[in-house]
Amino acid sequence: MISIENLKIEFNAIPLFDNVSYVINKKDRIALVGKNGAGKSTMLKILAGLQQPTSGNVSIPRELTIGYLPQVMILTD
């Protein structure tokens, strides 16, 4: 179970999310849908542990692995 409690994310003191809470249970299937700039990628980065929220709690079981594939990939030879 993934638990998000009172999540707040700000960029340059401008809130993207404020007081967001939700739970994703073991067999849940979810989709993040929204317009450009709504924070979908930011939310995924937080769930993957690649970005920290301004405040709030993110609880992910240690045995759970979350993968994240960025929108823009840098390929090297």
TrEMBL record:
Pfam families: ABC_tran. One of its GO terms (molecular function) is ATP binding. Residues 18-60 form the ABC transporter domain. Gene3D superfamilies: P-loop containing nucleotide triphosphate hydrolases. The keyword Hydrolase applies. Its EC number is 3.6.3.-. Keywords: ATP-binding, Hydrolase, Nucleotide-binding. It is an enzyme of class 3 (hydrolase). The keyword Hydrolase applies. PANTHER family: ABC TRANSPORTER ATP-BINDING SUBUNIT (PTHR42855), ABC TRANSPORTER DOMAIN-CONTAINING PROTEIN (PTHR42855:SF1). This is Putative ABC transporter ATP-binding protein. It comes from termite gut metagenome.
